[in-house]
Amino acid sequence: MIAFRPLCRGDFALLSVWLEREHVARWWPDPHDPASLEAHYGPSIDALDPTEVFVTLVEDRPVGMIQRYLVADYPEWERAVRSAGVTEPAVGIDYLIGEPDLIGRGLGPRVISAFVAETWARYPEVPQLVVAVQQENRHSWRALEKCGFERVFAGMIDSDDPSDAGPSFVYGTWRP
Ligand SMILES: CC(C)(COP(=O)(O)OP(=O)(O)OC[C@H]1O[C@@H](n2cnc3c(N)ncnc32)[C@H](O)[C@@H]1OP(=O)(O)O)[C@@H](O)C(=O)NCCC(=O)NCCS
Fold it and tell me: For a disulfide at 164, which of 34, 121, 145, 159, Cβ 3.0-4.6 Å?
């Protein structure tokens, strides 16, 4: 019922709608005009950037976006994550469900769990998966806890990204 397919440029209009929605924009404050989407996601679509970006499908309905990357591919972020106590090689994931009618109904944990399972298979050498989340984003960190993630850090993350502004948590889960 839950599936992931690679993001393509034909998804930009829908992605823009999702990023505009209030429940997403607060936590994902990225510009989402066509040029910004192309600049941000075009390289991943063309496999020039190592982040893999997917559309989440529920019974074939596109409901959100989810992405993963090797932390080591982004040295500044790796430094920030290490200063938060993550010492093992790790994969980072980020996610959103864009459809407001699906929020707060337990879908997020199912999506994240399915994606985590696929990600272990994609990166067989990596022992840990991490997510940075603002402390105020209870929706997100509760969803992670329901998937078995554990809180490994609480505090300010050394990052310029606006989505890391304010007190954050870092959550981790380990290869079963
Ligand atoms: C984060 C997200 C994927 C979670 O998915 P979800 O399907 O909403 O998750 P759940 O239904 O399991 O709800 C998670 C928690 O949020 C709580 N919640 C529901 N409505 C809420 C609200 N208005 N404010 C705060 N928490 C709320 C739920 O009660 C649940 O906590 P509980 O288990 O203690 O009851 C989804 O909310 C989302 O995409 N949000 C916008 C983008 C985002 O924040 N991305 C993450 C950036 S780190």
Answer: 159
- Ligand 1 site, residue 19, Cβ cutoff 6 A: no
Ligand 1 centroid from CA 47, angstroms: 31
Amino acid at 68: R
Structure tokens, 141: 């960190």
User: 99 near 59, Cβ under 8 Å?
Assistant: no
Q: What is the pLDDT of residues 44-94, one digit of tens each?
A: 999 999 999 999 999 999 999 999 999 999 999 999 999 999 999 999 999
CA 81 to ligand 1 center in whole angstroms: 23
- Domains of the chain in start order, with CATH, are 2-174 (3.40.630.30)
Are 169 and 130 a contacting pair, CB within 8 Å? no
